[in-house]
Amino acid sequence: MPPVPVILAPMATTLAPRDFAALRAREFPGVCEVAYLNAAAVAPIPERTRLATEAYGQRRTRPHELKADDFDGVLERARAAAARLIGADSTEIALGSNTSFGLNLAAHALPMEPGSAVVISDREFPANVYPWMRQRERGVRLEIVPTDPLGRPDEERLLERLDRGDVSVFALSAVQFASGYCADLTRFGRFCSERGIWFVVDAIQALGQVEIDVRQAGIDILATGGHKWLCAPFGTGFAYVRRELQDRLEPHLVGWTGMQACTDYTRLLDYQYKFLPDARRYEPATHGLQDLVGLTESIQLLVEAGISRIGAHQQEVLQPLLDWLAGHPEVQVISDLSPARRTGILCFQPAGPENTFHSLADAGVVCVLREGAIRIAPHLYNTVDDVARVVSVLNRTNP
Ligand SMILES: Cc1ncc(COP(=O)(O)O)c(C=O)c1O
Predict the structure, then answer these.
(1) How far, in Å, from the CA of 18 to the mean position of ligand 1?
(2) pTM over the 0.85 mark
(3) Burial 342-363 (b: 16+ CB within 10 A, else e)
(4) Which residues line ligand 1 (CB under 6 A)?
C-alpha cells in the first residue's frame, strides 16, 4: 500500500463562537433533556463523531470503494491526534481498545528485577491493580500504599515509599475515579526518573478535562480509553510509550501488523521476527477503523474547545454545588478542593447517600454512587442549570 500522508485537519485555537452553550446545542443535543453529569463513567459522543463513524460505516457497505486513506490514513490521523493531545510524537502512540490494553502492555513489557516492588496507591481503579498483581509470577511484589483518611493518594507517603531503593514501577491514575483527585504528575515523574523507577499513568479520568504533557511529566507509559472524558466511541483508546524505551520493551501481544515484514501486503510470507521501529509494534492487529475515525474527531473537538478552558467551564458549572456544600459542613466532601487538585469530578457523602442518589435520578440527574459517595462529573456540554438541579434536590433531601 502506498504511504498515506497525514493530513490532520487544522485545529482552530478558538471555537467560533467560543460558546459552550452553542457547542452543547450543536454537538450534544442528546444530553439536553437530562442533567447528564456522568462523564467519569461514559460521556456522549458529539454529533461530528457520530456523523464521521456513520459515514465510514456507509463507505464500508461498498468496501471495493474504500481508499488507502480509509485504512492507514485513519490510523495515522488517530495516532497524530492522540500524540498532539498529550505532547507526544505519533511514533510513540499505540492504538488500542481500552485503558487495560496500555496498562497490560506496561505490566508485561517493563523490565523488573525479581524481588523489586511495584507501588500503587490504595483505592486505584481495578484496571490499574490486577495487571500488576499478575506480575507476582515474575517474583515482583505489589505494594499498595494507604491513602489519606478521605481515600485520596497520600503523595508524601508515596514518595517516601518510592525512595527506598527497591521499586521498579510506580503506577498511578492521573485523576482518581472515586475522588477526582488530580495527582502532581510532574513531581512524581521527576522523582521516579531520578531513581530509575518506571512511571506509568492511567489517564482515562484525566484526558479531555485535564492537560497532560507526557514529556514535562516524565511519563514512561500512559494508558487511556476513549469513552469517558474524550467523548469517543467505546472500544477506542491508546497507549503512549516513550520513544527511548521502545527498543527495550518487547511487545507482549505479538501482532503481525507490528512486524517489518508485513508492511507489503502482497508479500507476507517472508517471516522475519523484527518489529516496526515505533509504537505500532505494540498494536495487536486489525483495528475498529470506523471507531478510530470517531476518536480523531472527538479529540479534535476537545482540543479546539481548549482543555484548560473546559476545566474552567467545569468549575463554573460546579459552583452552585460548591456553594451548597460550603453551607452544609455536615456533608462530607471527598474531593480535594484545592485548586491544583480539583477536577470536574466532585464527590460528596450526604447522610443516606442512596436515598439522595435515587432522588437525584427521579429529578433527571444522571450521576453515580461510587464507594459510598455521590459522584458529579460535568463536562464541556453541561450548564450551571444542570448542577442547579442537583442543588434543588439536595435542598429537599438534606435541608
Ligand atoms: C481510573 C480508571 N482506569 C480505567 C478504567 C477503565 O478501564 P478500561 O478502559 O480498561 O475499561 C476506569 C473506569 O472505567 C477508570 O476510572
Answers:
(1) 31
(2) yes
(3) bbbbbbbbbeebeebbebbeee
(4) 98-100, 125, 127-128, 173, 177, 202, 204-205, 225
